[in-house]
Design brief:
Length: about 475
């Protein structure tokens, strides 16, 4: 029995002892839906499919060997920056089995968490919640699968009715192709490095790989003879600087930022309303100039900013150095503002020499003997463009031109209305600042499922169809019996 049906009947694909992978072993080749990527965005879609009892035959393709969410930044003590209520389901349906509160109940921590008196769980705990939820859909996920292309299948009367999705097993190198009527691309971000650091090598690490670098590279170094550089002015860079200065008190560690100071994020309640799911439609209806203005006006909520408690903590750390040593130049841990990276050279001993420029005075500063550079300069979100090259000729405009329901706009008469490609997490320009964040996942997942499956029978599903009022009510997960 397909996993979708197992879950709908209240049986867990993990707990019931059925470990056959009906979808991932390629016995099936035709799907109603293929999601490329299985991070929080696709996981929210899987949850919505379950909650709305949609009898779709779905496959999720994920390049990582197992579910992981920002594994490189699960730092000790790091907390979420948004409320736990912005989970995979609550804003869409607080009765869902997959809410964060029900996760706590299943893990026997609901009372204890309540006693904490916080809406901001540890990032480590939220990752465990996401992993717990993902575990219920194991039989629908093919891990270690890197998608290389999405191409139109054979057209009927020159109208495309389905897509070929080609992917490679990252372990065996074996290439497979499946067919899907609908494709969702939710690849997440690609780590972005300053151009001068792109070809430097293993002494440069993006924040997404930070914890791995800490455990493998830094233990080999003598802390008293180690110089580390952190580049960036946002939350990730600040957290890494804080973590490094706690782990390696004797090392020389400097945070370099082009700004004149580390700046606080604006998470006040009125401003936070820009992340409400119901704001997406009003933003989408704006003209391009107004959209750009709105994003620029609200950048302080999400880009190159740091939460105030962390700023205060870092300032206190630096003050303690001042207490013992008035000479800032002698401090082992420093924050260098107005420092824009210009050049990087690798010296004979393998260490790096960094050249920074002051964006105001244009004065140059050289920092020699750097053992490791950790870069917290964010992500690019255009990985879908390469995957869609074989479908490019069908697009009505650019790779980012999407409808309100996130469906890529296609040329008139070339693609069947019952077939499409949807984008997730790369539509900030058209859907607003919340597009790549957790804030709207629950509602967006439900909207996307309804926009895809809200009408008609499913060609590859279990033929139950969908009720006349759009989506049938779900069947509860009564049979799942979680332990620990």
């Amino acid at each position: 029995m397909p996993t979708a049906s197992l879950i709908a009947q209240g049986e867990s694909p993990i707990m019931n002892g059925n470990h056959e992978n009906h979808y991932g072993d390629h016995e099936a080749k035709d799907f109603d839906l293929v999601c490329i990527g299985f991070g929080p965005a696709s996981l929210a879609i899987a949850v919505a499919l379950h909650d709305l009892a949609v009898p779709a035959k779905a496959l999720f393709l994920e390049r990582q060997p197992q579910f992981a969410w920002h594994a490189g930044m699960l730092l000790p003590g790091a907390r979420m920056q948004i409320s736990f209520l912005k989970d995979l389901a609550t804003f869409r349906d607080p009765r869902s089995y997959f809410t964060f509160l029900n996760y706590l109940k299943c893990k026997n921590r609901l009372e204890a968490f309540t006693n904490l008196g916080t809406f901001l769980p540890l990032r480590e705990e939220f990752n465990d919640y996401l992993t717990w939820a993902a575990g219920h859909f194991t039989d629908q996920v093919q891990y270690g699968a890197e998608v290389t292309s999405v191409a139109p299948a054979e057209a009927n009367h020159n109208i495309v009715g389905s897509w070929h999705v080609t992917f490679q097993d990252r372990d065996s190198g074996h290439t497979s192709t499946v067919t899907a009527q609908h494709v969702v691309i939710a690849l997440g971000g690609t780590p972005r490095l300053p151009r001068s650091l792109e070809q430097v090598g293993p002494r440069v690490v993006h924040s997404s790989q930070y914890l791995s670098a800490v455990s493998t590279l830094l233990p080999r170094l003598d802390p008293a003879d180690t110089r580390l550089a952190v580049i960036g002015g946002g939350q990730s860079a600040a957290e890494i600087f804080d973590d490094l200065t706690s782990r390696y008190r004797e090392a020389n560690i400097t945070l370099f930022t082009t700004a004149s100071a580390l700046r606080p994020s604006d998470d006040s309640p009125f401003v936070n309303e820009i992340f409400d799911p119901n704001v997406v439609s009003s933003f989408y209806d704006l003209n391009p100039e107004a959209r750009n203005y709105t994003i620029a006006e609200n950048r302080a909520t999400n880009y190159s900013v740091v939460r105030t408690p962390l700023l205060e903590h870092l300032y206190e750390k630096l003050y303690q150095q001042r207490l013992h040593c008035p000479d800032e130049q002698a401090w082992p841990h420093k924050i260098a503002t107005l420092s824009e990276l210009q050049d990087v050279q690798t010296k004979a001993d393998g260490r790096l020499s960094l050249t920074f420029s002051n964006p105001r005075s244009l004065a140059k500063t050289q920092v020699d003997g750097v053992d490791l550079v950790i870069v917290g300069t964010g992500y690019t979100r255009n990985a879908h463009e390469q995957i869609l090259q074989k479908a490019k000729h069908l697009l009505s405009s650019t790779f980012g031109d999407v409808e309100r329901n996130y469906r890529l706009k296609m040329m008139d008469g070339r693609v069947s209305p019952s077939c499409g490609i949807w984008l997730q997490g790369c539509c900030e320009a058209s859907h607003g600042l919340s597009d790549s964040l957790l804030s709207i996942l629950a509602v967006r997942g439900g909207e996307l499922v309804k926009s895809i499956f809200g009408k008609g029978p499913l060609p590859n599903g279990n033929k139950k169809g969908i009720s006349s009022n759009g989506i049938p009510a779900r069947e509860p997960l009564n049979a799942i019996n979680e332990q620990n």
